Give the backbone structure.
Amino acid sequence: MNDLIKHKLELLPNNPGCYLHKDKFGNIIYVGKAKNLKNRVRSYFRGSHDTKTELLVSEIADFEFIVTESNIEALLLEINLIQENIPKFNIRLKDDKSYPFIKITKELYPRLLITRQVKKDGGLYFGPYPDSGAANEIKKLLDRIFPFKKCKNPANKVCFYYHIGQCNAHTICHTTEDYWQGLVEDVKNFLNGHDDKIVNQLKAKMKDMSDQMEFERAAEYRDLIEAVSTLRTKQRVIRQDMQDRDIRLSCDHIRDRINVGHKGTDDPDSRDII
């Protein structure tokens, strides 16, 4: 461990974020994410490791770190940094089918699913994500905002999610093909960072609940708005014709917080390096 690394280790915060390990030539050789940057990055330079990690550590001459507001931001930023830099010690996304995607099915009543297989089935795929944790967190947020089919009930029998406004896959909703297509477009825009429409709708609902003195419901919408603010992402959307369109992750608000002189790398509880 050189003096530069020793100095930077003292500057690491306890916040979530991403870290980038560099070799002596300044090349990024590994990108990771962490719930706690200080603990994760320091762990590389303490104790024993397996052979692959030892090899990585032996090549680390410097590191940078980027602080994020949440773990999900760190997950999304990690995807972007890996795709941009293709670090040699990361698990490369050579076969997208082995990584999780969020899928909108092409059905009478579309569903949101997580899958590891991309098929020519008319569905719309978002991803890939680095692990199931990232995909599940994003899907959980989408489920709360967009009322896709969430139940196995027949269309004429409403479900629990219908009563809380999260499932419109019932005849009583009188939805049309245009309605569902509009919902799909809203998800695409939302995941591409164009979320003004959704945020404005949530703000209107929050105000409405507040005016009705339904403060608990208003707080739920407030929390949703805060969650949306962490998801300013661009992503690769893979259409049914299997053509990749680079929509990349847009984490400008994260990058604005990069401290060039004190960046560090880290990934606390992420998957194995190789």
In short: The beta strands are 17-22, 28-34, 62-67, 101-104, 112-115, 124-126, 237-238, 244-245.
